[in-house]
Amino acid sequence: MTRMNPPSIWLQVHPGAVISIAAVALGLLLAGCSTSTVTGSGSRAPQPREYAAPVDEVWSAAVQSMASLGWTIAHTDRDGGVITATTPPSVRTYGDQVSVLVASAGATSTRVEVASVSTGQVYDWGKGRKNIVSLYEAIAERLRPHPDQE
Q1: Domain boundaries along the sequence of the chain
Q2: Which of 8, 21, 92, 133 shows the smallest number of beta carbons within 10 Å?
Q3: Whole-model pTM?
């Protein structure tokens, strides 16, 4: 039996590109689940949010907010606008996978879409919705001007 070699195109792909493509695909897959997934509270997952700030500012706020919530950032792809992270285990879940998509919605506006999926269990007891809302609120707080900064 002869062994077949992979097509030459596979040999020309940069290893970092494969990881970025996989991360974007995972992010889009999880983001797609966020609009149709029913959370433990019995209501639809929160809708994407738009912030009145440039994309770079919102990106930084999202990364900082995820870290301040105690989440471990697993991957960032600034060019693709994707951030993935894991939450620590809790009484409600074994830990969740959170995917964030940050995209420009104009010169001074940015759209953020968050998806949270529990790992290893069918029902998340509302934890996914809590993760999403907590991140949206943390981003908004970081973007809000504070009196001592003026």
Answers
A1: 14-144
A2: 8
A3: 0.69
CB 45 within 8 Å of CB 39: yes
> Rounded to the nearest 5 degrees, what angle is found at the Cα of 114, between the Cα atoms of 126 and 116?
40
Kindly report, residue by residue over 42-53, the tens digit of the pLDDT.
Answer: 446 789 999 999
User: What digits encode the pLDDT tens for the residues 70-117?
Assistant: 999 999 999 999 999 999 998 878 899 999 999 999 888 999 999 999
66, 72, 77, 81 alpha-carbon torsion, rounded to 10°: -30
Residue 41, Cβ neighbours under 10 Å: how many? 14
Question: Token pair for residue 43?
Answer: 């209501």
Question: Which of 92, 84, 69 is closest to 31 using CA atoms?
Answer: 84
CATH of 14-144, one of 3.30.530.50, 2.40.10.220, 2.60.120.260, 3.90.330.10: 3.30.530.50
